[in-house]
Fold Phosphoglucomutase 1.
Amino acid sequence: IPLQVLTVPTAPYPDQRPGTSGLRKKVYVFQSRRNYLHNFIQSIFSSIDLRDRQGSTMVVGGDGRFFNPAAIEVIVQMAAANGVGRMIIGHHGILSTPAISCLIRKYKAIGGIVPTASHNPGGPDGDFGIKFNTANGGPAKEAVTSKIFQISRTIEEFAICPGLRVDLTTLGKQMFDLENKFKPFTVEIVDSVESYANLLRNIFDFAALKELLSGKNHIKIRIDAMHGVAGPYVRRIMCEELGCPVNSAINCVPLEDFGGQHPDPNPMYATDLVDSMKDGQYDFGAAFDGDGDRNMILGKRGFFVTPSDSVAVIADNIFCIPYFQHTGVRGFARSMPTSAALDRVAKATKIELYETPTGWKFFGNLMDAGMLSLCGEESFGTGGDHIREKDGLWAVLAWLSILATRKQSVEDILKDHWLKYGRNYFTRYDYENVDIDAACEMMEDLEIMISDKSFVKQRFAVEDKIYQVEKADNFEYTDPVDSTISRNQVTLSGLRIIFSDGSRIIYRLSGTGSDGATVRIYIDSYEKEQIFEDTQVMLAPLATIALKISQLHHRTGRSGPSLIT
């Protein structure tokens, strides 16, 4: 009997504006508000022209967090009712964000729906989210997310096929006949890892990596998947294929609450990895976030590589990766808050450098135009033009390729880099769950202050250091591909103060939280001579100035940051 397709009346919600990476809310919001998930999914489908939807292919898979299976069932039922012809779904509903991008491109899908809240906490009391990726495999552009939001504010009904039940545990095709549909609706459950692993085989020299990791003079590594989606990819690629001992990969079983951890790969939250690296038994360490797109790199005894330095080192050693030997290098890019370490490599190698707002979609546009090969963000994201998402495992294999070629330690490679280019000291202060009104009011007052002509040339003295303002603005970006202008968006861009010595202070509201506001202060300062000092000591004067200018502690009621990276 053909399955029934229903049109269900609903009422809109005013708060479904996608942030930097989709819609993120507490789990209870999706569970307790009637049709909250359905409304947003319908808004996604309604944003796609009906002619493009009919008979099309879409990809679905998430990071395994709590509410993932229930959400996927609704997404599939609504896809069928909205004219989609085929759904590609990861085995058990599991797909890393990089693998989603890979599959969208492989199957020429019109897009993918990703149930994830990335590096945010999971479990019944944690966060959940829905992200939409378009046909290029990357996050939807602002024009698309704006359209989704506008639809969500006026939605009156959604289409669903409630009797459709998919078995996520069995690989292969499942066919469903729907009423008033001439062709059956097809669901294909695919191996979550294989297509993505094959892509990496065509980028890196797996034989050289296997020799590095399991050969006669192999290094010892420690990989922490933080109970996120990266676990199955680490086991299959790093252990089974490249020969790492199974016990070198920890927390590799995806759990719906990430084992009670905050799946954010930084020194504060990846404590299992940081602690295990301290005694020096491992030469290389790495951690991944909940959906597998972010990474943290550590050297022996926990030597920390900032994400800003990481992308700069990969850029300087890019031809250690066979893929770039074949394709050449078209350009480098970084988000505006990321340190200028990459700029120095670009200048020395005479490769174009692009400075974009925060959000991988801006990189994707440059890649689609053939203008960009490598990019990174200070928020532990690094990637190449093989897909249209940041890619944690790709970044780790890039670093291992450099180690295999140069036969040096992580620390020696980075110190050589500083000796060659100088060092950009960089830190980020996060003030999480701040009252939204207080945060927005502070940012508005800050913008008024720095926009005043008298602010430029002001001097700030801390101890024996004097900093003079050379430029201050709300960062504005004109896309060199389509001339789209991004301005006055404090979650994508930010307020920046640039001093005469090139040092920068940046204020920004994060667009990836689910509750309250997160205020971020970024501090970046270049040194040519003093390159082996403590970061927080070197940046303390600028941190004092940043807090003085913003009056952040007074305005938010906070005595200090929630997180320093």
In short: The mean pLDDT is 93. The two ends are 57 Å apart (CA to CA). Residues 283 and 300 are 5 Å apart (CA to CA). The chain is about 35% helix and 25% strand.
